[in-house]
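Standup notes, protein team

Yesterday: finished cleaning the Caenorhabditis elegans set.
Today: Nucleotide sugar transporter structure.
Blockers: none.

Input for Nucleotide sugar transporter:
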Amino acid sequence: MKTAILIWLTLQNSIHTLLIRYSRAREVDAMFVSTVAVWLTEVIKCFICLFLVAQEETPRRFIHALRTQILEQPYDTLKVCIPAMIYIVQNNLFYVAASHLDAATFMITSQLKIFTAAIFTVIILRRSLNRTQWFALAVLFVGVSLVQLQGTKAKESSGESPFVGFVAVVVACCLSGFAGIYFEKILKGSAPVSLWMRNVQMAVFSIPASFSAIYMQDSKTVNEYGLLYGFDSIVWLTVLWYGVGGLSVAVCIKYADNIAKNFATSVAIILSTIGSIFLFDFIPSFTFLLGASLVIFSIFLYSSHQSMVAALGRLRGEIPSTKEAFCL
Ligand code: C5P
């Protein structure tokens, strides 16, 4: 199950990267408003989660579950307010960063979340990482950076501020690391609330918050041209795929963890770069091959340590608990 989710997240992320790049970089008369895309992604995710919750219950019990787990437990619902709001800020910041940084720089810097997730894992979840694991994370970071470095050279475009883009991506990475670990703590905590219901709870906050962001940032365009300005089939596909990606992240956090999620996304970067070979006539260089090898090496390094811990536990006759088994 865990492996299947990680493979799915890797494939999902590879297509996501190509789609989002294509939707923003192509020549169109009307470019869609990114805050609207973020809001619609939240709406779509909410509908998917409601549908999935409804699949598990009869219609009557579905309404009852919504009432008891959302309205009648305001404290429990409020717990997810923090990651919900953070994810909205993060998703919008990533669009800001992508507008000010060239694609390669944006993707290298956004790999900072490998470290922020690891640091918050240690601080919030109190899991310790040994030197080999930190080393594997560092190798992963260098590998992904090399893969991206071989990308296009930065374009000198007017109106772009690399400093703004850099600050946006660094803040977004810190938020991603914190929100992911916080959500993992809530999800693997004691309250028996399903993953999909947790996401419906998040939607209670994220939908109004992302809608307000449209009017705070893009009210002029939206008032003049409407919410769906620039929306064509490619944009809809990107929004839908973003939603599926968000829910895949949620499933990955539940069945694996945030660090495993970042490894899957790093492999996705390599796959999407390979995808560009066919789609955008991209030619891989030695730097790319070196970076890709380092990423694969880091995965073996990180997971071989985990397998060793599991094997040692078995040798000593220790049977890991379900929670530990997930971590392993
Ligand atoms: O990898 P990263 O932390 O950046 O991924 C976070 C993404 O996953 C955000 O777009 C967030 O909205 C989405 N997500 C979600 N539901 C969760 C957790 C994350 O939609 N329960």
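Follow-up from PR in the comments: Residues 49 and 196 are 5 Å apart (CA to CA).
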